[in-house]
Amino acid sequence: MQKIKIAVIGGGAAGFMAAVTAKENNPNAHVTIFEKSNKVLSKVLISGGGRCNLTHNCKSISQLIKNYPRGGKELKKSFSQFSNSDTIEWFKKNNIRLKIESDNRMFPESNSSQTIIDLFIRKTEKLNIKICLSSKVDKIQHSKGKISLQVNNKNIKFDRLIISTGGYPKISGFKLFKELGYNISSPVPSLFTFNIPNDDMTKLMGVVVENTSAKVKGLKLKQNGPVLITHWGLSGPCILKLSSWGAKDLADLEYHFITQINWLSENEEFARAGINKQLTSKKNIYNSNPFALPKRLWHHILEKVKIDELQKWNVLNKKLRNRLINTLVNDEFTVNGKTTFKEEFVTCGGITLEQINMKTMESKIHKNIYFSGEVLNMDAVTGGFNFQAAWTTGYLCGKNASK
Ligand SMILES: Cc1cc2nc3c(=O)[nH]c(=O)nc-3n(C[C@H](O)[C@H](O)[C@H](O)COP(=O)(O)OP(=O)(O)OC[C@H]3O[C@@H](n4cnc5c(N)ncnc54)[C@H](O)[C@@H]3O)c2cc1C
After folding, report:
1. Whose CA is nearest to atom 53 of ligand 1?
2. What spacing in Å lies between the alpha carbon of 13 and ligand 1's midpoint?
């Protein structure tokens, strides 16, 4: 085992996984983590509402990669080395019991992200990994496979470098890597909810509609799943997925667009058939909802299409019938801005992946420099997939950089 010096920039999920793996693979290596802030693993702490949704119970890699709007295809190579099932095994081996929720998200059984932080801190202490806090890396130099880092006005030399700095909201954040010659895909936020200011729908805050589909007018974007109505607009897994797949396009539209909600997630014929079945009924429309929609939403839609509270099914005219069907399957909302979801967001953009060997995570431009985590142009929908990418790429960096 070579006595090499390895630097890891960034004390987040990817950096810790990389550092621990490097030292476990090569006990002779000197591993140092440089973290610019005064604490480590801060995103892990607040993740998943303090519970840390650390991976997803996907049965295959082909299923897993479908959740990455950016990087899915490329990550296939990385996941074939270290997948979500390897992650689950890795935590088990380290005595962390995990649980699977009904939607296949996975959490520590303790329901506390602190369990994950404690594990990584314990491991770094045991493995004698040095952690330098308040240590921002300001410059990286690479010459003939050797690396020099400028940290707090000092130059320090290393044999290997693992870059795990996470994403930056602005392109200027990537200066360190641009100077080294890397191409960057401009960062924009992903995972956000839609603001529909001045729309009466917001009065229905708290209502969840389980099976909906949502589109963005003029774009080829469509997602299914639950929609949550909030006091500012539309949220829930369906909207978050739409924001993730459309992150770049919606940023180009400066978050002003029309979203089309299909409250039934079914086609017009289905809606028409459901309504037609009622047309002989003498029941009041407000009290008989054929689609099992939440009552408040059903009433709201009827008000929106101007169906009177005393209206009976058997005397509903064709014009109102068509308006009702259209609103059920294509309810349009003008979106004006976005809001983060429980402070959770990821960066869409970063170091573009064609510059990286995704099997080893080594740079194709600089020998002995490796990349992991959100600094790369890869990100996922919610559900534990973003941490999965951090664990996988961090693990591969550690394994390969320590050889
Ligand atoms: C509120 C919230 C909740 C989330 N919940 C989940 C969840 O439940 N499940 C999930 O899968 N994903 C979740 N995510 C996304 C997930 O947290 C990230 O994808 C993941 O943390 C990325 O890990 P990373 O190590 O690449 O980057 P980070 O965690 O961002 O770590 C990078 C570190 O590098 C440091 N750094 C940056 N530049 C320098 C420099 N020049 N020198 C030294 N240090 C530097 C930063 O200070 C930071 O500590 C959540 C995100 C947020 C914001």
Report:
1. 344
2. 7
DSSP letter for 279, please: T
Residue 396 CA, ligand 1 centroid: distance in Å: 18
> Which residues are bridge partners to 331 per DSSP?
261
Is the overall model pTM greater than 0.90, yes or no? Answer: yes
Give dist(CA 391, CA 90) in Å, integer.
10
Cα gap 44→10, rounded to integer Å:
13
Q: Ligand 1: distance of its center to the CA of 77 in Å?
A: 22
Measure the CA–CA gap between 192 and 349, rounded to whole angstroms.
15
Alpha helices by DSSP H, listed for 237-366, are 237-245, 247-252, 268-276, 295-304, 318-329
**What is the secondary structure of 100-126 as a DSSP string?**
E-TTSEEEETTS-THHHHHHHHHHHHH
pLDDT in tens, 32-84: 999 999 999 999 999 999 999 999 999 999 999 999 999 999 999 999 999 99
Listed in sequence order, the residues at least 6 apart from 269 whose beta carbon sits closer than 8 Å to its beta carbon are none
Of 112, 3, 5, the residue nearest 48 (C-alpha): 112
**Which tokens in the block code for residue 37?**
């802030």
Q: Are strands 154-158 and 331-336 parallel, antiparallel or unpaired?
A: unpaired
CB of 376 sitting under 6 A from ligand 1:
no
The minimum-distance atom of ligand 1 relative to the CA of 379 is 19
Tokens for 234, please give them: 């539309």
254-271 residue pLDDT tens: 999 999 999 999 999 999
**Neighbour tally for 372: CB within 10 Å:** 33
Euclidean distance between the first and the last CA atom of the chain, given in angstroms as a whole number: 8
Tokens of 371: 């990349």
Contact yes or no for 285/307 (Cβ under 8 A): yes
Q: Which CATH superfamily is domain 5-188+347-401 in?
A: FAD/NAD(P)-binding domain (3.50.50.60)
Contacts of 67 (CB under 8 A, 6+ apart): 56, 58, 380, 381, 383, 385
DSSP state letters, 245-266: HTHHHHHHTTTEEEEEEETTSS
Contact 243, 192 (CB under 8 A): yes
β strands within 177-311, DSSP E = 184-190, 192-195, 208-216, 222-229, 233-235, 256-262
Four-residue CA torsion sign, 193, 199, 202, 207 = negative
In the chain, where does the domain assigned CATH 3.50.50.60 lie? 5-188+347-401
